[in-house]
Write a structure and sequence with these properties.
about 575 residues, 13-stranded parallel sheet, 14-stranded parallel sheet, alpha/beta, Helix Hairpins
Length: about 575
């Protein structure tokens, strides 16, 4: 049926009508569809059924078949008044089918408090024309419920408090025009729930406190217009949930405290409009939640206090625009933002996460991971390939930075080195100079490991000189002074070297005929013991003082030359490390 017509005319013809399913009706209704320019678009014929005849079938417990029929002013509220029943009395309907039917009303199309007793309930391809549509508190029983390809010309559709206990429920390819769509407190049963390609039009859409129970749920390629989309307090159980490529419109999107149950939740390639998006307090028992390549539009985004402890949550290549995004106090097994552009404030103060993947991201503003009110418990952090144009607020000790990067299983030494280099630059920009030094040391260590790893892939001759060089670099640059980041360690290294050379002199003097000779022949100098001469000569040689009152002979000359060079090097090393500290 054409859904874009502007209005219609219905003419009752005094001739029999035979439906495609073989039903016979005494009269025919000719329906003429017009556009807004009064141009005729299409003509169709339906069987005509008096409303009183339908009421009589309900009263006498007969099957109701309205396939290909035109129905005017059907209302269970009117039926109750006729039968002198309470306003909310349950009206039992034995079985019901209205495939390709045309419902028209001067008031409301009312199926409220209906109880469909046997078999499937089929409204597929039906058109609900004038009047608000109400299935409030309807009980569809254990059969399948089919509203596929339906057209709700009056977009005010009330399915609140309705229920289905067993079969599938489908609104696939249904079209709701502008108005309020209310599915609050609806119980969809344990079958498949299918809203694929459903068009909800403008107006608020509410699934507040709805129970989707077991079974797959699909809103794939559904389209929401202007208005709030509200799944607040909705409950899903076992089954996969798909919101793939959904267009959510420009209203507020509310998934607060939703229970996603167990299964896969798919928001891939969905489009959010200009309203806020909230998944605050939502949770999933176990499964995967995916927002790959989702476009979050222009509204701020909140996943605060979400509980996804046993789930992988994936935002790879999602577009967050310039929106503020908050995962404050969020829990997840894995949280991935791989290849995303983070243009605004990102609150990643997670209360728990096994793996936070920020690899290949471009950060333009601020990422906040620094603990404040609670411990930020991130077990593993991956920032390899990150282009950091903004800042990361992170604390080396409180965030346990060394462990959360070093324990990565998916990255090699080179990528770990790159990550520490990124953090080194970040700490420098944020004025955390002690943390900068720690990051720099581990950057150099992993860089050295990466070089050795690369050397092992080469020839054996390459390794012959790489191993001694690697050992020398570790000793001089790392162990002696932590790459000029720790002047106290350099000072300690100087003392160790001084004592070492002193003992070398003592050993040489004790076992050889060479010596450390007084250059001025003073009795006081001649009276110096072996230990005294060794330590004194070591001191003036190490510090390159060179008073001239003692000079070496024989093998001591060679050792003195080496100590003089080492002393000069370590004093320069200390100067660099000390100045580096005090100038920042």
């Amino acid at each position: 049926m054409i859904s874009t017509y502007s209005y219609f005319k219905a003419n009752i013809l005094n001739k029999k009508f035979y439906s495609e399913l073989g039903n016979e009706y005494n009269k025919t209704v000719e329906i003429i569809l017009f556009d807004k320019y009064n141009k005729e678009l299409f003509r169709l014929e339906k069987g005509y059924v008096e409303t009183a005849e339908i009421y009589d079938s309900i009263l006498n417990r007969k099957e109701i078949v309205l396939n290909d029929c035109y129905v005017k002013n059907f209302s269970l509220s009117a039926y109750r008044r006729i039968q002198i029943l309470e306003k909310k009395s349950i009206v039992k309907i034995k079985s019901f089918s209205a495939m390709n039917a045309f419902f028209d009303s001067d008031f409301n199309i009312d199926f409220s408090y209906a109880e469909f007793e046997a078999g499937d309930v089929n409204f597929s391809k039906a058109c609900f024309e004038n009047g608000n549509i109400s299935f409030n508190s309807a009980n569809f029983g254990e059969g399948n419920v089919d509203f596929s390809y339906c057209i709700f010309r009056n977009g005010n559709a009330d399915f609140a408090n309705s229920m289905n206990t067993g079969g599938n429920v489908t609104f696939k390819n249904a079209i709701f025009k502008n108005g309020t769509k209310d599915f609050q407190n609806t119980n969809f049963g344990n079958g498949k729930k299918d809203f694929t390609n459903t068009e909800f039009g403008d107006g608020d859409v509410s699934f507040i406190s709805s129970k989707f129970n077991n079974g797959d749920v699909s809103f794939k390629v559904a389209r929401f217009g202007k208005g709030k989309v509200d799944f607040h307090f909705a409950e899903f159980s076992k089954g996969n949930i798909s919101f793939e490529r959904v267009e959510f419109g420009d209203g507020r999107i509310d998934f607060r405290t939703v229970e996603f149950g167990t299964g896969k939740v798919n928001f891939n390639r969905s489009e959010f409009g200009e309203g806020e998006v909230s998944f605050e307090g939502s949770q999933i028992n176990e499964g995967k939640v995916s927002f790959k390549k989702t476009n979050f539009g222009k509204g701020n985004i909140s996943f605060e206090i979400g509980e996804y402890d046993n789930a992988e949550v994936n935002f790879d290549k999602a577009l967050f625009g310039n929106n503020e995004v908050s995962f404050y106090n969020f829990k997840a097994n894995t949280l991935s933002f791989k290849s995303c552009r983070l243009n605004a404030y990102f609150d990643l103060r997670l209360s728990y996460c096994d793996l936070l993947d920020l690899s290949d991201t471009i950060v333009h503003d601020l990422i906040d991971m620094q603990p404040y009110e609670f411990k930020v418990d991130i077990k593993e952090l991956n920032i390899s390939g990150m282009r950091l144009l903004g800042r990361i607020y992170i604390d080396w000790k409180a965030n346990n930075v060394l462990e959360i990067i070093s324990k990565q299983e998916s990255t090699g030494f080179a990528l770990k080195a790159e990550q520490f280099r990124t953090l080194k630059e970040n700490f420098s920009n944020t004025g955390r100079y002690d943390d900068e030094d720690k990051s720099y040391v581990w950057f150099k260590r992993y860089e050295m490991k990466a070089e050795m790893e690369e050397a092992r892939k080469g020839s054996i001759f390459n390794l012959i000189w790489r191993y001694p060089l690697n050992w020398f670099q570790k000793l001089i640059f790392d162990k002696a002074g932590l790459y000029a980041t720790d002047p106290i360690r350099v000072m300690f290294s100087m003392i160790v070297v001084f004592v070492f050379f002193s003992f070398i002199y003592m050993l040489i003097l004790a076992i050889t005929h060479t010596g450390i000779v007084s250059g001025i022949g003073s009795p006081e100098h001649e009276a110096l013991s072996l230990v005294g001469r060794s330590f004194y000569h070591s001191a003036i040689t190490f510090l390159t003082i060179g008073y001239g009152d003692f000079y070496p002979l024989g093998a001591v000359r060679l050792v003195s030359g080496i100590e003089g060079f080492v002393g000069l090097f370590l004093m320069s090393y200390f100067t660099v490390a000390f100045v580096r500290k005090i100038l920042r």
